[in-house]
What we know:
By secondary structure, the protein is of the alpha/beta class. It is built from 39 helices and 58 strands. The strands form 18 sheets. It has an eight-stranded parallel β-barrel with strand order 12-13-16-20-21-22-26-27, surrounded by four helices. It has a seven-stranded mixed β-sheet with strand order 23-30-31-32-38-34-35, with helices on one face. Strands 2, 3, 5, 6, 8 and 9 form a six-stranded mixed β-sheet that branches. Strand 20, helix 11 (537-550) and strand 21 (555-558) form a beta-alpha-beta unit. The two termini are 55 Å apart.
Amino acid sequence: MLSTGRFVYVLSLDANSDRQSTLFRCNNNDTIQFIYGSTLLGRKISLFTDYSKESANFKRNTYQKLVFTDEMTTIRFETSGSFHFYYTETGCDVVCGQFYIVVNPQLKVGSGANTQLLDLNAIQCQTVLTKSLGQFPTWKSKLEVSHKTGYNMIHFTPIQELGGSNSSYSLADQLKLNPIFNTKEKECRVEDVQQFIEWLRTEWQILSLTDIVLNHTANESPWLQTHPECAFNCFNSPWLRPAYLLDRILYRMTTDIVDDRWKSKGLTTEVNSEDHLNLIRKILHEEYLPILNIHELYLVDIDTTLNEFKEFLIKYCKTSKPEKPLNDETLKLEIIVDDKYRRFKSTIDLNIALKIVLNEVEFNGDNDQWINWSTDNIRHKLTILNEVMTNEIRHHLSDAIENVIKTARYERIDSWGPKHKIISLKCPLVCNYFTHKGSDMDLLDEQKLAFDDNDSKFLMAHNGWVMGDDPLRNFAEKGCNVYIRRELIAWGDSVKLNYGSGPQDCPFLWSHMEKYVTQMATIFHGLRLDNCHSTPIHVAQHLIDSARRVNPNLYLIAELFTAHEGLDNIFVNKLGINSLIREGLSAHDSHDLGRQVYRFGGEPIGAFPPERLSSGQSELLVLPLRPSVCHAIFFDVTHDNESPIIKRSAYDPLASSALVAMTFSAIGSNRGHDELVPHHINVVHETREYKSWKENLDSDDKIIANNSLSMDSAIIKSKLAFNKLHEWLAVNGYSHQFVDQRDFDTVAVTRHNPETHESVVLVARTAFHCPKDPKASPYLPPLRIDGIIDKLLFETHMTGEPEINFVQHKEYINGYSEIRSDIRTDLALDDSKLIKANKIGDSYEIIFNYFPQSAVIAFKVSLSDYHKNALEKLRVFSKQLDDESSDVNTIISNLSLIDLNYLLFRCNHEEHDDTNGGAYSLPVFGQMNYCGIASIIYYLRHIRTHNDLGHPLCGNLRDGNWLMDYIVDRLTKNPNTKSFADWLAKVFTSLSQIPRYLIPRYFDSIITRIYTSILDQIWNQSSPFVRNGSRFVQLLALGGVAMIGTNKTAVLPPLSSKIVDESQLLATIAAGLPHFSSGYMRCWGRDTFIALKGLLLLTGRFTEAKHIILGFAGTLRHGLIPNLLDGGRNSRYNARDAVWWWLQAVKDYCLIAPNGLELLSQSVRRLYPTDDSPALLASSEIVEEPLYKTVQEALQRHYDGIDFVERNAGKQIDEHMTAEGFHIKVGVSRETGFVYGGNRFNCGTWMDKMGSSAKAENKGLPSTPRDGSAIELIGLSKSVVTYLADLSDDNKYPFKGVNESDGTVFTFREWGLKIEANFEKHLYISADTEQQYVNRQHIYKDTFGASIPWMDFQLRPNCLVAMVVAPELFDKNHAIEALKIVRQELVGPLGIKTLDPRDLKYNGVYDNSNDSHNKDLAHGANYHNGPEWLWPTGYYLEALLKFNDNYTETVAYIESLLSNHFQHIESSDWFGLPELTNTDGKHCPHSCPIQAWSHSTILQVLHSIHSK
């Protein structure tokens, strides 16, 4: 009955994750794989669990450690229960995460070769009141009714001896059977019951469960007399004494009313009006409460207390002089209520009183006078404290009386209440809250009884429940006012048990109840935890653990009334509850009932399948271990509630129970429901017995008719059909479902098999209100059923009418006899009396000819041959994707990374430029981010994780083939992907031929497999660092694939024909998407070469790296490479830093690429051989040179000095820049060796925000000119010249240095040494500096020689670049101190603040649309003055690797910080890290969501750690 396929669930562990209120469930034999989540990057954890393979050895809070290998560990569950897991960081005892996993039991029925497993979702349980089973020998014939009706589990109410009330849940002795089971000849023994329960399991294949009642015991329990400590009583719980006295007051009022004491005032035993209630309230307040003055039990005797205090002060003054201590505002004088609650015996803390008077009463040198003043001070305070306490208690008492009035109103006046007419001793004004010892006495004697140390032990508190109370709190414990406020709905036949905190507090009770629970667990297959929400969790845990030791596969169910799923889950987790009881009767209409069927049932039809992985000879189903709601056992009605015939109508039980039976969960019912018993079979008052089964019932035999039932009785035959269907659906894998509200009364439920795609459709017309004409069949819109209807499983409805003058049988529980269900089974469509089916193509239109309220019909549906053939083709296509040698995988393996960029990514602008196309637009969501399938994958991942089949993507797929057509048409346009498009077209043709509701499921299956194959191809074409790297590394590299592609509007300048065919469109790096994706805004010099190392060199994409280096080299002009490339034709040369990043990239390529030094000899096709030459594009004009000459020219031009005005200066190239800004001047200082340049009107480094608001008067004024010598350029130049010096020394670079004007050579070595000699001297700000503009010490200047002097001294992150590329420039100790300040002041969750928060210009929120008058903010002027950019983060972390005191701790910190980036990229719908964030990592809507250099620099630091 249970699927034999094993599941592997994957649970990602995250830092600071307390999931005690989250429910995770699995089955026996399932395996859980625990993996590190992104938040644990860089951390090592130790995972512990209290799981034990042997239930008998399970000890809560005894843990074993699970060992991780490659950040993964597994556990296979071989026993059921609830198991706690927690994890700590290795070497630390602090818990950083915890959770529970509830493992379902394996339930077995039958015996020997016929033994079968019973799936929890196949359970059909019926509740019986055991006291109504009567004598034990008659049980079989009575329970045969359950067997014949198709139930496979019986819930027996407690089988123990009952108390005086005869309530099934008020047990007199937990270790004795109910004597009602005995016959005159034989006493029923526990062994007899155990044998019978086993007979039910093996012969009838029926399992059994019973209740365990842990909260209370019957008032008459004999062991209470010898062990009164087992109850909450007035001796061991003296805080209940005031409530007991109030209880006796209320009891006294009942006896006085019965004795007509208040008749003269108009109050008699008949209470039936608000006037009567008002009179009761008045008499209680004025006549009864003053007798006992309950508030005095909480008060201080002022005079006695002051005498004690005075003596205390005298002793104090003998040894100390009263001096005012330090003022302590926390000092507060409070009443300490007497622990025995004696009248006026409360106290205060004399030490606190002393401290108060020392503070408040001045000492004048006279001890006696100071003591008198102090006692007066405290007298005043005590008077106030008594008044406050009096008011508080009187408020409680007043509320208590109001609760008494509310109860009396409900019981005696309200139309929906029981309307008790007469007050009597059997039916008092209100239920007692306490038991009483001895005969009645007056109230003053009652008070003496409450304080008597012997007799008060037997004044025991009754149990009950409190509406809306905290279920985790014991309402009888000290500090809770439930009893004194009369908030308890008390059960007057039982007393509340007092377990204490553990067995040591009440040994007898714990031992007694453990014997009881283990005995029941030995006999029965399951337990129902009665009153679970009021059971102390530690008690239930101990006893359930004991039960599971004797019954490892114990099935535990419970009913919770917490009204909060999180609280429910705490109980479920800590106790290992397998199913929570839910009740269809709680639904207020058919729509609500349908909602419950959906909520407690299975996955929606079309839910995405699990990922399948092969494991040896078996097939493993691999799924994320998702949080779930607790498994339900869904009753149509429980034994606690009224008959649905009373709440609804006699015509409803049939239809509503049919809907419950369609739920993919355990289901249940109450004996009497199927027999149409028109009243509540009360667990307290019912004394009659159930009827027995009679196969062929002769209605003429009155005796047999009165005490017997048959298949034709009431709705039994129909219920058998429902139960058979429910079990068959569960056993045969119909785990998906759909609920459709057809009209106000009618609900259709479809159960679907996700493998065979067969379905069962059931339609039920409920009758929540009695129909005026039960035979009427109001119009019901036709129902469309897709597929082939194999047959009608059954159709049924009610016939006859319920008896108007129903009479309850005196001996047997009887139901209606004149109304029953008429059911017909296994019908051909044409034989139906309820519907007509019109076949339309591959579907049917169901016309409801006669479908009255109560009608139910069920169809068995399978797919048409047309649909089956299409599905079979899809399975073949799926297998091709799994076969590495298949045609489709061969096609994918031949695709380049540029092709895969096209297949997966490309944003709207890129697509528009190349093909005039655009991204697909989804309803509600609008255009996707990417034109390729990556955005689809993002949505599918969400849908799969959340089972969100209502997602617009699913709706779009169900509604039409537009998305499939879009994918194929788009891929067809690219010659390199056309073959793949042709294969995909065949797949989509078959996909479009299956039922529309299944298309999202199979679309996901195909696209996800394709995506997996594409990822494999990407990794295969990547470096080992990526191919064998972590998921984080691969995600960062995947982002690089998104940003590296071809674009017709943003091409590389032509390369030498020796390197590449001129006609070939070469890849470029988009600075960021979508803002910098196409046209002249795509390729930025500095962005490209900051990104090149991480995205191309470290990932193994050396060809693209070479092309880009040489392409930019060809555009060298004025000794610079372009800021904006624009194909080299309209380039702007206004970046001072781009050329240095290019030179650094040349160095990196030479060091990293195989045979990297060969790059220096590669031909560069010079677009501008001279500064003034036009772009040489014609083949006849080609000028080529080896790269080393281009490199040397760049260096020589810098040394000579660069001074020019940009071509076409003015608004045609920059609308905002002033004339001075177009003047580019760059050079090398002969004194320091530092590169310098720029002016206050331009911004030649990466911090390049130009003011553009005339309104705010910042137009033409850069926010960050950074003229002079920028620190990162000093570092980059040092890196380059040092590397060239080394190459030159080894004769691998043909130049020794740069030429002076006199022809002498200034060697690279000399240049580097000059920089090194001046760096710390001019850039480090020491503690003893006397420079004018210092804002911080122990940092490095951002620039040197800026035209605005104070800007030199700003704290910015640019020094981090220099630390990484030229660490030799830095004093190690200085660097470490500077990095500490960076960490403290600049480091954010993802990025680095671009300016010191202490700076007056700082503002961390970037808003490019700001149109204010604020000069520092308008039009996003603060772009680099606070917002947290990501790319410097990589350099910060690499700097830490170079300058640290403890490498291991540094790496741990780095990976911990990078866990934020890992989390972000995992959840990014752009598959990337953003350009920047606002303050503290907050999302910036004006930022690119994916930026090339953000990915690159993080990859660089991960590579550095990996290489180490």
